[in-house]
Design brief:
With about 130 residues, this protein is α/β, with parallel strands linked by helices. It has one domain. It has two helices and six strands, in the order αβαβββββ. The protein has helices at about 1-20, 50-65, and strands at about 40-45, 75, 85, 100-105, 110, 125-129. It has a six-stranded mixed sheet with strand order 2-1-3-6-4-5, covered by helices on one side. Helix 2 links the parallel strand 1 (about 40-45) and strand 2. The chain is elongated. Keywords: Signal.
Length: about 130
């Protein structure tokens, strides 16, 4: 019996010792969403309808990370007043399936071509294309 318990303890110790857990903080953008992340509204254009499930799944993963996360996202039927607009885009030459662009409240681009915003962004924050 003693040998059995010792074997179990050694096996558990080996598993715990060998297990490696890596966690890193996500990158921070230079700008912030001025209205916060507690009420993010997103719209999926008909041109991105083939990706609706993927987009909704990504939204779910952002909201429910397993950690205390203040992000709340709500799907809208139109792009009026939304924070994120998703449009379909593919480029078979480069293999790019999409990118994100950030815009300010006057619909002026802040960061395009996959770059992160370096100043605050407001009402119309991003377009997934």
């Amino acid at each position: 019996m003693k040998k059995y318990v010792l074997t179990i303890v050694l096996l558990l110790s080996a598993v715990l010792f060998v297990s490696k857990v890596e966690a890193t903080k996500p990158p921070k953008f230079g700008g912030v969403l001025s209205q916060g992340v507690r009420n993010v509204r997103y719209y999926i254009s008909p041109s991105a309808s083939n990706f609706t499930g993927d987009i909704d799944n990504a939204k779910h993963n952002w909201m429910y990370t397993g950690w205390d996360n203040p992000i709340y996202m709500y799907k809208q039927g139109s792009n009026y007043g939304t924070n994120i607009d998703c449009y379909g885009y593919t480029d078979s030459r480069s293999g790019v399936g999409g990118y994100v662009e950030f815009f300010d409240g006057s619909d002026r681009p802040i960061a395009t071509g996959g770059a992160a915003p370096n100043r605050n962004y407001f009402l119309y924050t991003s377009r997934c294309v």
